[in-house]
């Protein structure tokens, strides 16, 4: 493997590790904030997360840690607003549905992403990859899904949340490649729109779901401490999310997300003594098997493609396994030649007009 491949491997593993550690940390922090201290304003808190992330990136830009690269403003604004709306819809889905149905909503994001990428980007997922994803979803479902209470409003909100989340994550990957921007540059430009969207709808949404006013809450020193800690951790969470999707693919990011779910369940039992059953253990073990199979098949099929295409073409592939030594080509089925026209999503206003 060349120097470029080794650098990519280290960068991908580092991004995956950062995403797991920061995400599990913020879940534990937010659980203490919401469950123990009663601060249940999730959407408003997320808007503060994004505001702190933007301020941190602005300081990093001022210190010249990265270069500002403006591009199509309408695409950035649409992307930022869509991300904010998807977060709000997920919170609404949790408010109108049982926890079990909400977990099913999260599980549905992977097959929905696969369908969208197949339809609009002509990506191909091998039977081995489909099988490993099915094993993963089965395991997470066994571990997390309990009661399934259906209602019309909750089902509609869940469907909208799934669609907007899938599109937003696909856009995260697509925009970075089409406009040749880094995850940091995209996050810096989209953060204000995401934060503003959630800051405007957050107090109303949280008030509707909790019957409390976020501005009238009793902000003790302990609450403020955990809010500040949560916001600081969120900088790493937001950065690693864009980094992972940019280096791998939306599907791989969702696989990683379910790994985080399993870790949160485990840490919750070990550290917080949450209830834990044999069903949880069995589900986590099945999910881990699915993750290992997904990474293994991606790696094997990538190595097979490496013998058929040039190193430059492999480098330009658009997907990667959970742990891999090069960009996986499993999800887009075949090489990308230099003179092939870029496939631009239908939501990109700049390119759709052309």
Automatic annotation (TrEMBL):
Record's InterPro entries?
EmrE-like, Sugar_P_trans_dom, TPT_transporter
Listed GO cellular component terms?
A: membrane
Q: Under what name is this protein listed?
A: Sugar phosphate transporter domain-containing protein
Q: How does it sit in the membrane?
A: Multi-pass membrane protein
Per UniProt, which keywords does this protein have? Membrane, Transmembrane, Transmembrane helix
List where in the cell it is found.
Membrane
One Pfam family this sequence matches:
TPT
**Domain Sugar phosphate transporter per the UniProt entry, residue ranges:** 22-295
Instruction: Give me the ranges of the annotated region Disordered.
Output: 309-341
**Which regions span the lipid bilayer?**
12-33, 45-63, 75-94, 156-175, 196-217, 223-244, 278-297
């Amino acid at each position: 493997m060349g120097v470029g491949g080794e650098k990519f491997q280290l960068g991908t593993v580092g991004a995956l590790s950062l995403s797991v550690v920061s995400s599990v940390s913020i879940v534990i922090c937010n659980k203490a904030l919401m469950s123990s201290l009663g601060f249940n304003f999730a959407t408003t808190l997320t808007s503060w997360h994004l505001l702190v992330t933007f301020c941190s990136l602005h300081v990093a830009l001022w210190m010249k840690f990265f270069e500002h690269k403006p591009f199509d403003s309408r695409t950035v604004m649409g992307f930022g607003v869509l991300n904010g709306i998807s977060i709000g819809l997920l919170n609404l889905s949790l408010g109108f549905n049982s926890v079990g149905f909400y977990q099913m909503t999260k599980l549905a994001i992977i097959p929905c992403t696969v369908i969208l990428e197949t339809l609009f980007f002509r990506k191909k997922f091998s039977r081995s990859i489909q099988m490993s994803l099915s094993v993963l979803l089965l395991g997470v479902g066994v571990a997390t899904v309990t009661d399934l209470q259906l209602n019309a409003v909750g089902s509609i909100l869940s469907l909208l949340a799934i669609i907007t989340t899938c599109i937003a994550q696909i856009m995260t990957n697509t925009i970075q490649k089409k406009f040749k921007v880094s995850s940091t540059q995209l996050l810096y430009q989209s953060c204000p729109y995401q934060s503003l969207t959630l800051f405007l709808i957050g107090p109303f949404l949280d008030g509707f779901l909790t019957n409390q006013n976020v501005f009238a809450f009793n902000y003790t020193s302990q609450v403020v401490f955990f809010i500040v800690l949560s916001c600081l951790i969120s900088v790493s969470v937001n950065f690693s999310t864009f980094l992972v999707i940019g280096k791998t693919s939306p599907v791989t990011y969702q696989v990683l997300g379910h790994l985080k779910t399993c870790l949160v369940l485990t840490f919750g039992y070990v550290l917080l003594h949450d209830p834990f059953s044999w069903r949880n253990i069995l589900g986590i073990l099945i999910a881990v098997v699915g993750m290992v199979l997904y990474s293994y098949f991606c790696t094997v099929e990538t190595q097979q493609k490496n013998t058929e295409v040039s190193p430059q073409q492999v480098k330009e592939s658009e997907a990667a396994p959970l742990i891999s030594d090069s960009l996986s080509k499993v999800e887009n089925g075949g090489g990308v030649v230099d003179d092939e026209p870029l496939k631009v999503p239908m939501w990109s206003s700049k390119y759709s007009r052309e």
